[in-house]
Write a structure and sequence with these properties.
The complex is a heterodimer of chains A (about 1100) and B (about 625). With about 1100 residues, chain A is of the alpha+beta class. Chain A contains 48 helices and 15 strands. In chain A, helix 22 runs parallel beside helix 24 (about 440-455) and helix 28 crosses helix 29 (about 540-545). The longest helix of chain A has 24 residues, at about 380-405. The two termini of chain A are about 80 Å apart. Chain B contains 12 helices and 25 strands. The model of chain B is unreliable at about 220-260 and about 520-545 (pLDDT under 50). Classes of the chains: A alpha+beta (about 1100), B alpha+beta (about 625).
């Protein structure tokens, strides 16, 4: 870089730019610093300052002052500075270049520089001594001369030095006092302040020094010895204040308050008050002297009096009212700047706060009686109104407190003053009611609500009483009522109210207030809202209510249902997209409810609402969504449903191996975790029998809520879930009724006619149920899912460090292995606890290439194995045993723990195992006392009995059947459905034989019997070569059951239509296949397949209707794919 | 010495460019701050969350960017002021207090020594004063613990300040007189920045007004025509009342006013050098300081014997002696003409004084002559001696400063009754046409010498365009502008004195069809969802009772929010604003009897008294429409 001539003088323009850039900072400043190193810059500055005609002397001095910390670090420059000061101060005036202004700025800047770089301690004291001496010389000539203002400034310089180095001037205090006495020009304020500062420091440092003594000459000035020596020197003189002299000095100082400017007075009082305390002067003396300042319109003086009041609390006893009155009057002075009016209210609030905190309850009484003074006026700016309303809130809090205190029954005021203050105060912003919701009036009004509401409480935990007080406060009651009325009348306020409630809900301490408000709204607003289009504006608040599980949902559901009916009724050609929008909004609330409430609470009303919507709502999309929600509500257990709806929130919460915490002792823990992350990509646990339904909608979800906590959660609610089952089942019938009438009709209690047929059925069922174990008290029925575990060698080695291929080893020996594998299972579905599996040893699967090469080598070792079989070597079979509490599909999460050969611990999550509805299919348990050859008959009878029991108008609906063990009982609540499968008979028969053979209990119909019997897949059942008559019987009986039965339209056509139209579409009837499937823990699924040439009608009955959703998919997958 | 006031730094920013045009740092004060900061950090337990107080001053560029960041975050220069939905944690409006529009905090992104990356450090309290094109920021010295306390207030996670709370903004402000001082500094600087230093107006019968301090100085000393700058300009009273922009319909107070002078850096520097050389204010009286700078002193300016010359009176008067008082009153009225809302009428007055008296005499006059029941507030110039017991039944004694000064402020009710009585009715006969009727009575019960110099009535329609107008008043002339109709009842030169008159004015006014106005950015910043109406407006039209409500509803949909400095949303109402001037006497009853004015040491000096009354917000609310009101307390 080319070296610039460093001595090139800077022009005034350069200096201006330099000063600007220094202040701007950053790169602009660095540009100069690199160009002109500090010493050079200072040299240039000094020479410019010495030049007579340099125009920017004052700005340059200010610049040196402002950046003194970075510029002055060499005593040489300080020498030059002091020299410059002397030159400028002593130069004669020419009023052009050497002016008083320059002299004053020079003194100020030099002083400032010395103080800010702490030259006294960091450099030589002589700089300070020289400057002080020069300044003392300036102030020493008290006369009415033209330099009077400059003398004042010199006093200020000395005062700053004295402030920074306390007691620097204490030795010359006597001289200063006499100067102070003799100065009579306007500069006397500075002399007085200087002398006061010296006294203050003497008192503050507790120096025993005579301030009358003028034996030490003023000039030449020497820094007092005690400031130079070690700290011990200072202590020596601390023997006690010279009270008498100091009091005289104080008396002198107090003579002259009238010469001070307000700013000077502020400074003066700041020193006088501590001196008065230290000298034990009577505070009342100060009060007499200075209290009148509170009537000044200078804010500084008012505040000074307040400081005095805070300092000498006792001396002002009884004058609080004067102060309060005065402050509130200041806030009403329209001549004042707004900020000072605001400040005066703040001071008042601060003062009142102190009074209350000090428990001055007596004084409060008289203060709150002044409440009316705090009323805002029409033309008060909104900010002032807001603060005055704070004052009113404060008063109302005091009223409430006073009410508490006067338990004796003394009534303060008439009516309820707290509420009166609230209502009167609110008047000033009452326009918020009809203004747009974003208006400032609205913001102020809701701020007031908040203040009045939580006014009496605090956010500190140490304050236990406030909740009760708030709850009982009349303000709270008033506010609740008011908010409800407001929202009823002015819908535009709904979002604002919601924001208000959100604010409370978001506060740990006050969220119960928000909840309480929501409850009030739920109780009082919802019944009063008119059901019309304007209801849409209430959506936000309804959403909040839906979110809150402390509020029973029935009121809301009721309202939403009414609204949906209204929408459907009012639907016309012009509502179009609006219907969609409104319907979607309502469904949005339904969704919120689903994700925040227990399904059981919602079930009745919500299913009602959703069913109505998906049947009648004009908009297709809304109908669709309603259907999805309905399905979810019906089919998914509550906890899981909520977790699905809150999917996004939970996603981040899933850790790769939540259980690894428990064996985190190994030092390689973190390492392992990292490696375990992608473990599922090469260790596979697979079902041996793939599921028919691959991508069922409920099964496509990623694992949720894995880990031990989830299991614990399930355990704890097992009983609830069980009882929920019962309830949901009970509701089923009502749901079906609903779809026709759209009103809930309580199902009539069926007449219990016990004819012989019924009693026979009951007997069969009793027998059957007594075989079913009650999972709550004994081992439940198990569902077994065969699986196999395998892992791929190459990626495994890649991660776990095995060399591949290992030198010296070939073939199987070269493959990695895992030892002592433990598979742990968990599921969010209610599958009970799933026992873990142990696999002692497992070889890795050779990768494709090595596999083949290995194959050629090891041919001679395993010659008998065929191609498909050799895979089995690398697969460990295992069985997952579930004890379902509900026969629902779900996911089983798999956690693997194993040891690698080198001792590393492998941990991680494997791909989850999908459990389908068909895994739940079990053969019904036969009583042990049935002979083998009677078994077929038993099943057939059982089928008939269950078929009957699951009919809607069944006579057994009210019966209960004891389970095995006798503690639990079960009731049957049947549901019916139909499915038309348009498949040719032969493929249907084939699929049935393949998948459903074990569950077939009887086949009816000559043709069908002959076909099936020949195939031989189905055995040991009842074959009925029935006549057409009996066939007719069967259908008739079905039709009878169906009469008056109301079905969800979307599950299929009406039975009657079916019967009528059936022959024409389906052609030749071949017969019936009856299938009985047992669903653990205690449910049943019955098919009556009416087989004909080109299609088959499956009538389905079950006592666990949620399974219908899966069965639909299952049957389609089974027969149609 | 915390009770005093010291300034660490001050900045003047250009509002439109967001740049610092002037800055001043006070290293002596900064050293005190630094010491306090270091000892605070030594003593307090290390708390990484809280410890984000800025330890040193920001550079101009850092400050400017932090300030514009705050402006962005807070929606406007001043900010929201109270917690709204847009408020974010850590910002001023989170504190939920209107004073945060005046005392602000900003976050400086600064790399502190030894720290790897910059983080946001709180700089508080900055007193914000907006004057003309400029924002003035003044940073007073407080203790780091106070800054931390404020940091806690604006980062609190709960729902906001309760009343009973130990740590509150109110207690902070009460404990920190330096903030009050900084406000005064900010206002003083603001006057210099824009160049409009105002002296109170004093009227004498001969000439409309007499000049300020410089005039009396130059007059007495015999110098004329010095000083190109700093000559105080007389301006209408009240000087300090923040003039309400609202009456004319302007909304944004943040909008810079045109016509401000460019920044005079020298004047600023010179003022700071005398007023607060080390950052501690000594005297903020600009006239005094500029006089000292401009005129200086001569050895012949002798101070009085045995008595100290006050700092606020650097010069003594020489010449013909006289004592002038002018009573200025501003009338605020909200006239409703309704049974349920009482009219409200208030007078805010002040006595301006000019004491051309030699030496340092005391002047006193009794306050007992006043009808004290009507006077609510009295506050005085610092030169006045107010006895500890308060001012009732006492004489007011003061030692007058030189030049024009405000001796006292007062608030009063109107003892004479409203100067203009009557009603204004506006009824929309269709969406675009309104029929109106005025019935006014002027100066009822007012006797000579009270003279009404002029009286205008304005009907502002800031949101509608006036197309045509029809009607003749019983007296006076009518003119229209684009957004208003103006009725001049009494024009200047034809003063009304000694009698009352009645004036009626029926008429109709037609507007251009209502159009949805462009949303100002301030609305969108308030972020309300406007689409909420799309679903429920279908049947709203049927429910409306009359065209007026319908129109009201329609127009209110895009009503912008007003600033917190406004008393209410002027645009939302129909009203007529009366402006007038009355001379001859006060209408509150405030008066000074020249015979009772005493001067000590006694001197023969004539005492002159004048009075004038002007209208402030003198509003006739449309009797048929909505109107703002406030509850009045029954004492």
């Amino acid at each position: 870089m080319v070296e610039k001539p460093p001595t090139r003088p800077l022009t005034p323009q350069d200096w201006e730019a330099l000063i600007d850039d220094f202040q701007y900072g950053g790169s602009r400043r660095e540009k100069w610093s690199s160009l002109y190193p500090t010493p050079v810059l200072l040299d240039l500055a000094f020479s410019s300052l010495l030049r007579k005609d340099f125009p920017l002397k004052i700005p340059l001095l200010v610049f040196l002052e402002e950046f003194s910390l970075t510029l002055f670090n060499d005593p040489v420059h300080l020498d030059r500075l002091v020299e410059l000061l002397t030159v400028i101060v002593q130069s004669p005036l020419d009023n052009i270049h050497i002016t008083y202004a320059l002299k004053e700025q020079m003194m100020v800047s030099a002083t400032s520089i010395l103080i800010s770089i702490n030259s006294f301690e960091e450099f030589d004291v002589r700089f300070t001594e020289n400057v002080v001496e020069l300044l003392l010389a300036v102030i020493n000539r008290t006369n009415p001369g033209s330099d009077r203002h400059t003398r004042g400034i010199a006093c200020e310089c000395l005062r700053e030095l004295e402030k920074s180095y306390p007691c620097l001037l204490s030795d010359v205090a006597g001289h200063l006092w006499s100067l102070c006495q003799s100065e009579r020009t306007h500069a006397s304020q500075s002399y007085i302040l200087l002398f006061a500062t010296v006294i203050y420091n003497i008192v503050n440092q507790k120096l025993s020094i005579s301030i009358l003594n003028t034996s030490v000459p003023l000039v030449p000035f020497c820094v007092p010895q005690r400031m130079l020596g070690s700290s011990s020197g200072l202590n020596k003189e601390v023997s006690g204040l010279n009270y008498k002299e100091l009091r005289r000095a104080m008396a002198f100082l107090l003579e002259w308050p009238r010469v001070m400017t307000p700013s000077g007075m502020m400074e003066f009082m700041a020193m006088i008050m501590p001196i008065a305390v230290a000298l034990e002067l009577q505070a009342s003396m100060l009060k007499v002297q200075f209290f009148g300042m509170i009537y000044s319109f200078s804010p500084a003086l008012c505040h000074t009096v307040l400081m005095m009041y805070l300092h000498f609390f006792e001396a002002f006893d009884g004058q609080e009212l004067d102060i309060v009155r005065r402050l509130i009057l200041v806030s009403r002075e329209t001549q004042q700047f707004l900020v000072f009016r605001l400040l005066s209210v703040h001071w008042l609030l601060g003062l009142l706060n102190k009074l209350v905190l000090d428990g001055e309850i007596g004084k409060k009484k008289s203060i709150v009686d002044m409440g009316f003074l705090f009323y805002p006026t029409v033309f008060d700016p909104l900010s002032l109104k807001a603060l005055k309303l704070d004052l009113l809130a404060f008063c109302s809090v005091c009223f409430e407190m006073l009410k508490d205190k006067s338990v004796s029954g003394e009534v303060i005021g008439d009516g309820n003053p707290a509420v009166k203050l609230f209502e009167d105060g609110l008047f000033s912003v009452s326009a918020f009611k009809w203004m747009p919701s974003w208006s400032t009036e609205t913001a102020v009004a809701f701020r007031v609500f908040h203040k009045f509401l939580i006014g009496a409480s605090s956010h500190s935990d140490a304050d236990p009483s406030t909740t009760r007080i708030l709850m009982e406060s009349t303000i709270f009651r008033t506010l609740k009522k008011m908010l409800v009325d407001l929202m009823l009348e002015f819908q535009r306020l709904v979002p604002v109210t919601v924001a208000f409630i959100d604010r409370l809900l978001g506060c740990q301490r006050h969220c119960w207030l928000g909840e309480s408000l929501l409850q009030t709204i739920d109780n009082n607003l919802l019944p009063r809202v008119t059901v019309d289009y304007r209801l849409v504006s209430y959506i936000p608040i309804l959403d909040r209510i839906a979110e809150n599980d402390t509020i029973p949902p029935h009121g809301l559901l009721d309202l939403l249902t009414k609204f949906m009916i209204f929408l459907v009724e009012k639907h016309g050609p012009d509502t179009g997209v609006r219907s969609w929008s409104r319907g979607s909004k309502v469904l949005g609330i339904c969704r919120t409810m689903l994700s925040h409430h227990h399904s059981s609470r919602l079930f009745l009303g919500l299913s009602h609402l959703l069913a109505f919507t998906c049947l009648y709502f004009p908009d297709l999309e809304v109908r669709d969504h309603a259907r999805i929600f309905l399905r979810m509500l019906i089919c998914l257990p509550g906890a899981k449903l909520r977790s699905i709806l809150n999917l996004e929130e939970q996603m981040c919460g899933i850790s790769p191996s939540p259980q690894s915490f428990f064996n985190a002792q190994t030092p390689r823990y973190y390492d392992d975790l990292k490696k375990s992350g992608g473990i599922a990509s090469y260790i596979h646990l697979e079902r041996v029998i793939p599921l028919l339904v691959k991508q069922s909608w409920s099964l496509s979800l990623s694992p949720l809520g894995v880990g031990s906590t989830k299991l614990g959660f399930l355990d704890s609610i097992r009983d609830n879930e069980a009882s929920m089952d019962e309830m949901e089942l009970d509701n089923n019938l009502q749901l079906q009724t609903l779809s026709e009438t759209d009103r809930m009709v309580q199902p009539q209690e069926p007449l219990r006619v016990m004819d012989s047929k019924v009693s026979e059925i009951l007997q069969i069922l009793r027998r059957h149920f007594s075989c079913i174990p009650d999972y709550r008290y004994m081992p439940a029925l198990k569902v077994k899912i065969p699986c196999s575990l395998s892992f791929e060698s190459e990626p495994f080695n890649h991660v776990w460090g095995g060399e591949s291929p290992r030198s010296g080893l070939e073939g199987v020996d070269a493959l990695p292995a895992i030892y002592a594998t433990v598979l742990k299972f968990s599921s969010s579905a209610s599958y009970g606890s799933i026992p873990s599996c142990h696999i002692p040893f497992l070889l890795g699967q050779p990768s494709r290439s090595t596999h083949f090469s290995g194959q050629t080598v090891s041919l001679d070792i395993v010659p008998l194995e065929n191609g498909s079989g050799d895979d089995e070597t690398y697969k460990a079979p295992l069985t997952i045993e579930l004890e379902p509490r509900e026969p629902t599909p779900g996911l089983v999460n798999v956690l693997i723990e194993a040891n690698a050969e080198n001792g590393q611990i492998i941990q991680g999550q494997l791909k989850s195992i999908t459990v389908g509805i068909e895994d739940m299919f079990l053969k019904a348990i036969a009583p042990s006392d049935i002979a083998e050859d009677a078994l077929a008959g038993y099943y057939s009878e059982l089928f008939d009995a269950l078929w009957d029991a699951c009919g809607a108008s069944s006579n057994t609906g009210r019966e209960t059947f004891p389970l095995k063990g006798g503690k639990g009982v079960a009731a049957i609540s049947g549901t019916r459905s139909v499915k038309l499968l348009e498949v040719p008979a032969d493929s249907l028969i084939q699929a049935t034989e393949h998948y459903l053979a074990p569950f077939v209990v009887s086949v009816v119909g000559e043709q069908l019997v002959s076909i099936l019997k020949d195939q031989g897949f189905i055995k040991d059942i009842i074959w009925k070569d029935s006549t057409p008559d009996s066939l007719l019987d069967a259908t008739t009986s079905v039709a009878e059951f169906g009469r008056g039965l109301l079905q969800l339209t979307y599950t299929g056509d009406d039975d009657k239509d079916e019967k009528e139209s059936h022959p024409s579409i389906t052609g030749r009837k071949l017969g019936f296949i009856h299938v009985l499937i047992f669903l653990p823990p205690r449910f049943h699924l019955l098919f009556q397949m009416e087989v004909s040439d080109i299609s088959t009608l499956v009538r389905i009955r079950t006592d666990y209707w949620p399974c219908l959703a899966y069965i639909d998919d299952y049957l389609e997958a089974l027969f149609l794919s | 010495m915390l009770n005093g006031c010291s300034i660490r730094a001050l900045w003047v920013l250009n509002n439109s460019l967001d740049t610092v045009v002037f800055s001043r740092r006070f290293p002596v004060v900064e050293r005190r701050w630094r010491a306090a900061w270091l000892s605070e950090n030594d003593t307090s337990i290390e708390d990484p969350v809280e410890d984000t107080v800025l330890s040193s001053l920001p550079t101009d560029s850092e400050l400017a960017s932090a300030f514009s960041e705050r402006r962005r975050r807070e929606g406007s220069l001043r900010g929201f002021g109270i917690r709204v939905t847009q408020s974010t944690k850590g910002s001023d409006s989170w504190v939920d207090d209107p004073i945060t529009r005046h005392v602000i905090g900003i976050y400086i992104n600064k790399v502190e020594e030894g720290e790897g990356e910059g983080e946001n450090h709180l700089l508080w309290p900055l007193v914000l004063h907006i004057k003309g094109l400029y924002s003035i920021l003044v940073l007073p010295l407080v203790e780091p613990k106070h800054v931390k306390a404020y940091g806690r207030l604006c980062k609190r996670s709960d729902c906001g300040n309760a009343i009973r709370k130990e740590e509150s903004l109110s207690s902070l402000l009460l404990d920190l007189p330096s903030i009050t001082g900084a406000c005064m500094v900010a206002y003083a600087i603001g006057d210099i920045v824009t160049g409009d230093v105002i002296e109170p107006e004093v009227v004498v019968s001969a000439s409309p007004s007499v000049g300020g301090l410089l005039d009396s100085l130059t007059g007495s000393i015999g110098i004329s025509g010095i000083s190109s700058r700093g000559k105080p300009v007389a301006s209408p009273v009240p000087p300090s009342a923040p003039s309400s922009t609202a009456a004319t319909g302007a909304v944004a107070s943040d909008a810079p006013k045109v016509g401000s002078r460019p920044l005079d850096k020298d004047a600023l520097q010179s003022f700071i050098g005398s007023a607060l050389p080390f950052g501690t204010p000594l005297d903020l009286n600009h006239s005094n300081i500029s006089s000292i700078r401009v005129i200086g002193f001569s050895s012949s300016d002798l101070p009085p014997q045995d008595i100290k010359q006050p700092a606020w009176k650097p010069y003594l008067y020489k010449g013909k002696q006289r004592l002038l008082f002018t009573i200025h009153e501003t009338v605020y009225a909200a006239m409703y003409d309704r049974d349920e809302i009482p009219d409200s009428l208030s007078v805010s007055g002040q006595i301006n004084c000019r004491a051309e008296l030699e030496g340092l005499p005391d002047v006193s006059f009794p306050l007992t002559g006043l009808n004290m029941a009507q006077i609510e507030v009295l506050s005085f110039h610092p030169c006045a001696q107010v006895p500890e017991q308060g001012m009732e039944k006492q004489a007011l004694m003061f030692q007058p400063p030189l030049g024009n000064f405000v001796l006292m402020h007062y608030q009063a009710t109107c003892s004479l009754g409203p100067p203009i009585k009557g009603f204004y009715q506006l009824s929309m006969v269709s969406e675009d046409e309104g029929a109106f009727l005025f019935k006014l009575c002027l100066m009822e019960g007012y006797k000579a010498p009270l003279t009404m110099e002029f009286c205008n009535v304005t009907m502002p329609f800031p949101r509608r365009k006036v197309v045509s107008f029809n009607g003749t008043p019983s007296i006076g002339t009518v003119s229209t502008t684009e957004h208003s109709v103006e009725w001049k009842i009494i024009t200047s030169g034809r003063g009304l004195s000694g009698k009352s008159i009645e004036a009626t004015f029926p008429g109709t006014v037609r507007f251009a069809p209502w159009q949805i106005q462009r949303m100002s950015s301030s609305i969108s910043s308030f972020g309300s969802t406007l689409d909420e109406d799309s679903d429920n407006e279908t049947d709203s039209s049927n429910n409306m009772i009359n065209v007026e409500d319908f129109l009201m509803d329609k127009m209110n949909k895009d009503l912008p929010p007003v600033d917190l400095e406004e008393p209410f949303c002027w645009h939302a109402y129909n009203y007529a604003k009366v402006s007038f001037k009355i001379v001859g006497a006060s209408i509150s009853g405030m008066s000074i009897d020249p015979k009772l004015v005493t001067i000590y040491p006694a001197v023969k000096a004539p005492v002159e008294l004048s009075a004038q009354v002007i209208s402030g917000d003198y509003i006739l609310w449309n009797t048929l429409g909505k109107c703002p009101s406030a509850a009045t307390a029954k004492a």
